Amino acid sequence: xAVKSAGAVDLAAAPRAExxxxxxxxxxxxxxxxxxxxxxxxxxxxxxxxxxEVPQGEFTCILGPSGHGKSTLLRCLAGLIAPAGGTVEAAGxxxxxxxxxxxxxxxxxxxxMWLRVEDNVAFGPRMRxxxxxxxxxxxxxxxxxxxxxxxxxxxxxxxxxxxxxxxxIAAVFANDPDVLLMDEPFSxxxxxxxxxxxxxxxxxxxxxxxxxxxxxxDIDEALVLADRIVVVKDGGxxxxxxxxxxxxxxxxxxxxxxxxxxxxxxLDILGEG
Length: 273
Hints:
The chain is an alpha/beta fold. It is built from seven helices and ten strands. The protein has helices spanning 70-77, 117-127, 132-145, 161-174, 191-208, 219-225, 257-270, and strands spanning 28-39, 42-54, 59-63, 85-90, 93-94, 102-105, 179-183, 211-216, 228-233, 236-242. The longest helix is centred in the C-terminal third of the chain and has 18 residues, at 191-208. The N and C termini lie far apart (40 Å). 38% of the residues are buried.
């Protein structure tokens, strides 16, 4: 079964917190954040004194060169790394560790290989003790939406890399977190599979209005996906820019002068152009 196209979904109409008529705490608020680790006798600070707010419902791409702290920052948002200084809040609450309000999709395959597709998708709510009657319909719908209806009893080893990534996406949405944290989830995939999964992700985001923080080193991927691009480089935020081009976005971006201007600016900041 083919993955449903995001083109059928009004991506511009994705829910936003500000549309509800009341002010909500941002999905994340970082104040003077410092992250560090040791390399032998040296202390390395990939993030040093960062301030950042991510509104609820926003699709934020965290862009940057390899080794400049973007994945480290994402893991801190997930509660997997404790700050060396400063504060991290999620929806107004101090982040002190992982929580069900934040779901993570890793670059490498992280789905349990001993569970069939439908059991993988249901794994999160089942482990949280949610009664099956409360999650079964959501799990079934997500398996259909990611195009795996005919593979629901398959083992992960019987799936392609793109199919396993679809399972991971369905699983994190099935657990119904407020925020999705995604660490270069499509980087190992070929162009066509990556494009299909980008469309799938945008479709699910438009339907649910969840906050997404998506790490990538690919400028074109960020331009296709993001409401906003935050460039992390040399320990700080080198650029923070909204992306207001109409959705859905595809090849037409290449013909849009404003998109190409932004692409060149990002290349210059990243030191790749």
